[in-house]
Amino acid sequence: MDLVTRDDEDLLLDLLNTTPVVDGERVDDLADPLAAADWAAARDGGGSAEEAAALRHVRDAIERAVRDGSGPQALAADVERIEVRPRVRDGAVRWELQASREERLAARALLAWVAVDERYPDRLRPCANPECCRFLLDRSNANTARWCSMALCGNRFKARRHYQRTRTPEG
After folding, report:
1. Reported pTM
2. Sequential DSSP letters for 43-70
3. Phi, psi at residue 48, to the nearest 5°?
């Protein structure tokens, strides 16, 4: 009966990771109106400027809450605007999100964040690479993941550490 699906969790992570570091500079994949429209459309959104603004607002607020540990209270006003109603469909009760087309993706991401925070406390976190602005959602049993991606950050960090350990001191 969960309202929040794995797709919603993936949407949340995708949204948080729209501000990667490229060539040493943090970029915003949703700053360009066409790129934001394409990003939203790929996730069943409408692609309007209003939708992009809602996504950026929710992304930035969730990012701050995760980084500083302030939790749901920091997003109380946004959470309280979301409406979810039960509907009987095909002989079962289904929960439906009540939101305008412009706010639907942002509301789904926000609901996913609330569910993740409840189901997987402390598992949504920033990448351990201090030069990276991406996030990860650790779904492993051990809860030991540190990198947004082994290919992006983990291998680079491990290679750097290996180089520092094995290089010979100059005499």
Report:
1. 0.85
2. TT----HHHHHHHHHHHHHHHHHHHHT-
3. -75, 165
